[in-house]
Specification:
- This protein is α+β, with helices and mostly antiparallel strands and 254 residues long.
- Strands 2-3-8-7-6 form a five-stranded mixed β-sheet, covered by helices on one side. The chain has a four-stranded antiparallel β-sheet with strand order 1-9-4-5, with no helix packed on it.
- The chain has helices spanning 5-18, 26-56, 68-76, 130-138, 217-227, 235-253, and strands at residues 80-83, 85-88, 93-96, 105-115, 121-124, 126-127, 150-156, 165-171, 176-183, 192-194, 200-202.
- Helix 1 crosses helix 5 and helix 2 packs across helix 5.
Amino acid sequence: MAVSVDTVYKTVLYILNKEQRGYVTPSEFSNVAEQVQQDIFKSYFADGNQQNRKNQTNSQNDTEFFNIYKDIAYKLYPFEKEIPFYYESTNDGFLESTPDGVSTLYKMGEVISIYSGQPTLQSITQLVNKKEFDKISRSRLTAPTNAYPIYYTTNTILPTETTQRLLLKIYPTPDNIFVNGLTIPARPVWAFTTGSLGQYLYDPNNSVDFELDISEQPIIITNVLKYFGVVISDPTIIQVAEQESQKVEINEKS
């Protein structure tokens, strides 16, 4: 379940007003919200590595709802997707299909190469560096096969574009590939229309919620406030502020 960008923004505004810290425009909030979401998202990997070490030493709690490593992995599930790639003959490799030239790939996982034939092979493809790729693919003894292909990654720019794209060079060249990866969270946006008095009115149709798990809502609010110079040490203050901001909104609409 995502975190409502409207709830976060109005709670932040309520606390800033109570602390007499001024007003934050929707544009300023959206810029900070994007950075906060990225900070939290990236922290999952360091936290996950730390908890995984506890798994290896059997010091991790493994009960159903108290395994922190599994909890972190669960928060990443919405971002785990099949990343579209297509074969590009000029570079003799597979290019990431990027909407509007902007990559959404954060980390690449397993690559499966598809070879048509009798039978069709779906082979896990081993990642190597460029030097290893050249050496292995030229060797008669270690040359990759359809059952055991290899690949390396590089970047390229198409003649009609200005942004680099991720390119996978695979040997032997498959007919198609499946790439599992983690995508970057979409930028949170508090969209609005302008009321008759010039006030900002929330536009849910064009807004974008935080893509993080609902459990992150207090941390999101706390971290957004830090960017605007307000430090909240007691988490219960966030809960009270959320309730109060909702009451204010209801009173304004009644």
